[in-house]
Fold this sequence. Notes:
The chain has about 140 residues and is an alpha+beta fold. The protein has one helix at about 15-35; strands spanning about 40, 45, 50-55, 60, 65-70, 80-85, 90-95, 100-105, 115-120, 125-130. The chain is about 15% helix and about 40% strand. Strands 3, 4, 7 and 10 form a four-stranded mixed sheet that branches. A four-stranded antiparallel sheet has the order 6-5-8-9, with no helix packed on it. A two-stranded antiparallel sheet has the order 1-2.
Amino acid sequence: MKTMRKRKKRTTTGNRLAWLALALFVFLAAPAAAEKKPKKSNGISETFAVIGGSVFRPPGFSLPGAEIEVTPESGSKSKTLKAVSDSRGEFAIRVPPVPMKYKVDVKCNGYQPQQQSVAVEGEQQTNLTFQLEPAAK
């Protein structure tokens, strides 16, 4: 019985050139991509500041489902941003990283609403804490 050996395919020069061209393209495109400015998608800049925090109820338990509204205090054309606290009573809202004062309103059914002011001055995170008291019956 004769055994047959399979011959290995030789890599053609065309395949080598294709791989070389691909490697060259990736090498040259990487520095150009790193120099790009932050993109805007849907009109929102990729750089931002964060207004976040926690909402509690007496005697210090988290309050999920609280409605949070962040509104610029000055006559800015920015619109009101809204969020809802999660199961741990936490929230986070992205705002533009420009110096501005915001009014943060928190309300929840069965509790008295609260309001705080916060100043944002750049790409930073500001944390607030709210403890809502039960509404009078």
